[in-house]
Amino acid sequence: MERSSGSSQIAIGLIDGPVAIDHPDLAGGQIRVAGTAGAACSLSGSFACQHGTFVAGILMAQRSSPAPAICPGCTLLVRPIFPESKSGNGGMPTATPRELAAAIQETVAAGARVINLSAALLNPDSGGVRQLQAALDFAAARNVITVAAAGNQASIGSSVITRHPWVIPVAGCDLRGNPMPESNFGSSIGKRGLCAPAENITSLGTDGNSRSFGGTSAAAPFVTGTIALLWSAFPAATATQIRVALLQATGVRRGTIVPPLLDANAAYQAMAGIR
């Protein structure tokens, strides 16, 4: 973050809730909509709006805000997927595989270089799962990196998202770097994923103030933002080079269900050595 605020040429696809784009700490940021749905919230009190705004704040809020963002100079492509309603239990929002597949394809078509995905799968029927697999393949074929929250069900296993070979799953850790007990873990998460902060993270609220939130939805944008900053610093790098630098910067991986901690500086040094 000291080296760069990000480049507008690097577009981050945010597949999430709508965003309170009139928030003063998002003013001046390059925020566009991916697809046909509007990016702005219609119900600022809805959990979908709160969730989307919170994640957008980690990525795009002004550096002078109470919750300075990782890459405010990048472009944010908002693709709302969660319906707005006043109800909500505060957990990770859900979407069907078909909805996620359509959102991924639209976000890639809009020009995203990296996608941030924080959604639990709802009703994963076989046809929808195949569509979602094809959408993730579509993103991979176009060198778009997908970052996905591992989930907060305290379970061991994987999903069609986290076991996809091109996806970077993100598990949650506390502020001491220890795995959060509510985070999901598994072999594919340990093999190709990372841990990132997921406890008492401060970002934007929809009422113009900051708020604290946790879980792997908050952890995923740390990895997404790191990728966007790396690509901003090394614009000629390939998606494979970015992935390798990020995932191998922590050293040799052991056969464990818990992935290593995100190390943005080590990834930067690895990229500098490649150049």
Short description:
With 275 residues, this protein is of the alpha/beta class. The chain has 7 helices and 11 strands. The protein has a single domain, classed as Peptidase S8/S53 domain (Rossmann fold, 3-Layer(aba) Sandwich).
Describe the structure.
- There is one protein chain.
- It contains 7 helices and 11 strands.
- The chain has 275 residues and is an alpha/beta fold.
- Strands 2-3-1-5-7-8-9 form a 7-stranded parallel β-sheet, sandwiched between helices.
- Helix 2 runs parallel beside helix 3 (126-141) and helix 6 (239-248) packs across helix 7 (264-274).
- The longest helix has 18 residues, at 216-233.
- The model has no long low-confidence stretch (mean pLDDT 91).
What tags apply to this protein structure?
single chain; 275 residues; alpha/beta; seven-stranded parallel β-sheet; two-stranded parallel sheet; 17% strand; globular
